[in-house]
Write a structure and sequence with these properties.
Layout: E1 7-10, E2 13-16, H1 17-24, H2 28-31, H3 39-51, H4 61-104, E3 110-114, E4 120-131, E5 134-142, E6 148-154, E7 158-161
Antiparallel strand pairs: 1-2, 3-4, 3-7, 4-5, 5-6
Helix pairs in contact: 3-4
Length: 165
C-alpha cells in the first residue's frame, strides 16, 4: 500500500508520484535537477497536499500537525548546523591566531626538540609557519660543516625553550 505522502488525489482520482508526474508532463531530467527538498519545497508540497485532498475523506489534523512539527524541526536543525559551522570556523581562527602570537614570542630564543626517537637537536627559532592548518616553528641550526640551515619543528616535539637550554 502506498503511503499518503507518496500519492496525490486530483478530481477524486488518486495517483502515485510517478504516474502523476507522467500525466503532468514532467520529465525525469526536470525532476533530477534538485536532489534535496528545502523548506520552501516542503511547504509547497504540504500546501499542494491540502489543496488536493478529498473533501469527503480529509486527512486527519494530527497528520498535518506532525508534518508541520517535522518542518519546524528541520528548519531549526538546518539553522543550528549552519551557525555551528560559523562558530567552529571562528574558534579555529582564534586558536590559530593565539598560537601564532605565542610562538612569535619565541623568535630568537634557543629551543631543543626531538625527532620522534631519541635524537635531540638544538637551534634558534627564526620564524613561525602555518601550513595546511598545522602550526610549527622554523629553527636555524648549525650543520656539521658550520653552515646554517633551517628546519621546521612541530610544536609537539619541542622539549625546552630558553637561552639556557
Amino acid at each position: 500500500m502506498a503511503s499518503s505522502l507518496n500519492t496525490i488525489t486530483v478530481d477524486g482520482k488518486t495517483y502515485d508520484l510517478d504516474t502523476y508526474k507522467t500525466t503532468q508532463g514532467v520529465s525525469a531530467s526536470e525532476v533530477g535537477k534538485k536532489n534535496e527538498l528545502d523548506k520552501d519545497a516542503f511547504l509547497s508540497l504540504l500546501v499542494t497536499q491540502m489543496q488536493y485532498q478529498d473533501p469527503l475523506s480529509p486527512m486527519d489534523n494530527t497528520e498535518y500537525l506532525a508534518q508541520l512539527a517535522q518542518y519546524s524541526s528541520l528548519e531549526q536543525m538546518t539553522n543550528v548546523a549552519s551557525k555551528l559551522g560559523d562558530v567552529l570556523t571562528l574558534v579555529e581562527n582564534i586558536d590559530s591566531s593565539v598560537l601564532v602570537g605565542q610562538l612569535s614570542s619565541m623568535i630568537g630564543k634557543t629551543i631543543q626538540w626531538h625527532d620522534g626517537s631519541n635524537n635531540y637537536y638544538e637551534g634558534k627559532v627564526s620564524g613561525v609557519s602555518v601550513t595546511d592548518g598545522q602550526t610549527s616553528v622554523i629553527a636555524t641550526v648549525e650543520g656539521a660543516d658550520g653552515t646554517e640551515m633551517q628546519t621546521k619543528v612541530e610544536i609537539a616535539n619541542i622539549t625546552r625553550v630558553g637561552d639556557g637550554v
